[in-house]
Amino acid sequence: MLFQKKTRAAALAALAVSVALVATGCAAGDSGSGGGEGDGGNLSITFLPKNLGNPYFDTSNAGGEEAIEEFDGTFAEVGPAEATPDGQVSYINTLTQQGVGAIAISANDPKAICDALNEARDAGVKVVTFDSDTNTDCRDVFVNQADAEGIAKVQVDLIAEQIGDAGEIAILSASANATNQNAWIELMKEQLAADHPGIELVEVVYGDDDDQTSFDKTAALLQTHPNLKGIVSPTTVGIAAAARYLQTSEYQGKVALTGLGTPNQMREYVEDGTVTAFALWNPADLGYLAAYASKALIEGDITGAEGDTFDAGKLGEYTVGADGVVLLGDPFVFDAENIGEFDF
Ligand code: RAM
C-alpha cells in the first residue's frame, strides 16, 4: 500500500491527537521559548488565504487563531472572494499601511504578489507563506504542509491503484497560477512518465478553487474524454465538487476520483463508494505552525535562515530548512476505514 503500516499508524495518531486538542480547545500552555510578553514585538498576525469560504482555509485559520491566542497575539483573517493575486495585493497593501506584525499568506501566484509583499517587508512586516509559496525572495519563511514529491506521489499511487495502473486520467486543479498545485502537477507528470507507462494524462483543467466552476469542469472532462478512467484533483474544492458531480452521474463507481480533500467534505462520497481514498495533511496544524513561525520572526528568534529553530507550542520545536522552508510533516491517506476518526 502507500504507507508502511508504522508510518500510517504514527501519522494517524499524530493527526488524532492534534484534532482532539483542537476540538477540546486545549491549549498547550506557555511556549517555553523565552519569548512572548515583554519582548515588545508586534504580535498582530493576519492570515490571508487564497480566498474566503473554503473549509480548508477555515480550518487552517482556526489553527492559526488557536496558536495566536496561546501566545497572546492578535489574530485577524482577510482575503478575496476569488482566488486571484490581484485580490490579495489590495489586502497586502492595506495590512502594510496598518502596520501588522506579520502576514501569513497562501499565494495565488508565485510572482504577482511579490512587489506588494516586499513593500510590506520593507515597512517591517514579516511575511510567512503557508500552503502555497511565492518566490523565495518575497517572503521570510514558507511553512510547507509536506514535501512536494510526497504530495505528488501519494496522489499518483492512489489513482494508479484505483484504475489498475492503466488508462486515461485527467487533473482538475485549482487556479492556473497556484504555486502549490502547479508544483505538484509537474511532479505528478514526471512520476507518471517514469513509473506508470500505462497511464495517459489527457488533460489538465482549472476549476479556480470555485465550487461551481470545478463542478462544470468535471462535467466537461467526462464529456470530452469518454474513455476517462480517473480524475485527480489536488485541491479540496475541486475534489469535493467533482465527487458531487460523479455521485449522481452515470460515472459513479466507474470513473475513479482521488486527490486532496478534507474528511468532512469527502465523508459522504467515501461512505457511498463514489470515492475510495484521498489524501491531505492537517490544515489546522499548518495554520498553527504558520502562526508560531510568524511569532518567531517578529520576536527575532529566527530570520528564516537554514538551521534556525523555533518553538511551535503543542507541535514542538521546528527547524528552518533550505530556502527558508519549514516542513509540517507527511501527507496522510483517508479511506472508509479511518475517515470516521476525523472531524475537519
Ligand atoms: C485547496 C487550496 C489549497 C490546497 C488544498 C489541498 O483548499 O487550493 O491551497 O493546499 O486545496
TrEMBL record:
SUPFAM superfamilies per record: Periplasmic binding protein-like I
Molecular functions (GO terms): carbohydrate binding
Source taxonomy: Bacteria, Bacillati, Actinomycetota, Actinomycetes, Micrococcales
Cellular component, GO, one term: outer membrane-bounded periplasmic space
Descriptive protein name: Monosaccharide ABC transporter substrate-binding protein, CUT2 family
GO biological process assignments: rhamnose transmembrane transport
Signal peptide per UniProt: 1-28
Compartmental location: Cell envelope
PANTHER family in the cross-refs: ABC-TYPE SUGAR TRANSPORT SYSTEM PERIPLASMIC COMPONENT-LIKE PROTEIN, D-XYLOSE-BINDING PERIPLASMIC PROTEIN
Pfam families per the UniProt record, alphabetical: Peripla_BP_4
Species annotation: Agromyces cerinus subsp. cerinus
Location of the Periplasmic binding protein domain: 45-300
Domain of life: Bacteria
